[in-house]
Amino acid sequence: MPGNRTGVIMTVWDRPEPPNRLVPLDRERIVAAAIALADEDGLDAVSVRKVAARLGAGPMRLYGYIATKDELFDLMVDEIYSEILPAEQPGDWREALRVLAHRTRQTALRHNWLADLLGGRPALGPNALAVTEATLAALDGLADIDTVMRAVETVSAYFTGAIRREVANLRAERATGLSKQDWQRASGPHVTRMLATGRFPALARAVYDGTDVDAETSFATGLEWVLDAIAAKLTPPRA
């Protein structure tokens, strides 16, 4: 992310685009091509050279629009945030956080590479900022700003971890050719032998007595528990 002599960071959104040449090119086309590559083969498939080839342009031309690969990722993430932003403001804080979590999960399932870029430093693009604004606005006035920020961070930490786990499982299925059920059947004899030793009684109860649920149910249940905990923090104590 280039800076200037004052030390102020100039983001990719602050820099103007260069004029067009023979092959039409702009950041919108570059980002669309990069997202298509990532959707097909993951982030490792995204490079300036491959994006340029997909657009029929020379790689050096792209550097007039993006300075680094990280900037390209920033633009890709912000474009995807447009899919997370709800069309209408949810009715209350709980629904707003629920919608944020579910829409982020649904978007990551369409674009698995997003799971690799969730978390870390806040996204600064206009779509990401709009998502953050809508989320904070839903909690405005319910508590002091520090409590509100911790609430949003807690939900974000939950769905980021849950999404990464789910995407990791999907990638394992594609890499091995084994579904969750196939993998359980294949590893069943080993697990049965280990549990028969009596060394893992709590795990044995979970395996034999626990209810196996799908990823969506697991995600929704865990999210509601997190929201219940946040509700307790947002509820003022009785006088």
UniProtKB/TrEMBL annotation:
DNA-binding region residue numbers: 47-66
Keywords: DNA-binding, Transcription, Transcription regulation
Keyword DNA-binding among record annotations: yes
UniProt entry tagged with the keyword Aminoacyl-tRNA synthetase: no
Origin: domain of life: Bacteria
A single GO molecular function term of this UniProt record: DNA-binding transcription factor activity
One GO process term, biological-process aspect: negative regulation of DNA-templated transcription
Domain HTH tetR-type, chain residue ranges per copy: 24-84
Family matches, as InterPro entries: Homeodomain-like_sf (IPR009057), HTH-type_TetR-like_transc_reg (IPR050109), HTH_TetR (IPR001647), Repressor_TetR_C (IPR004111), Tet_transcr_reg_TetR-rel_C_sf (IPR036271)
Name assigned to this protein: TetR family transcriptional regulator
Lineage, opening ranks: Bacteria, Bacillati, Actinomycetota, Actinomycetes, Micromonosporales
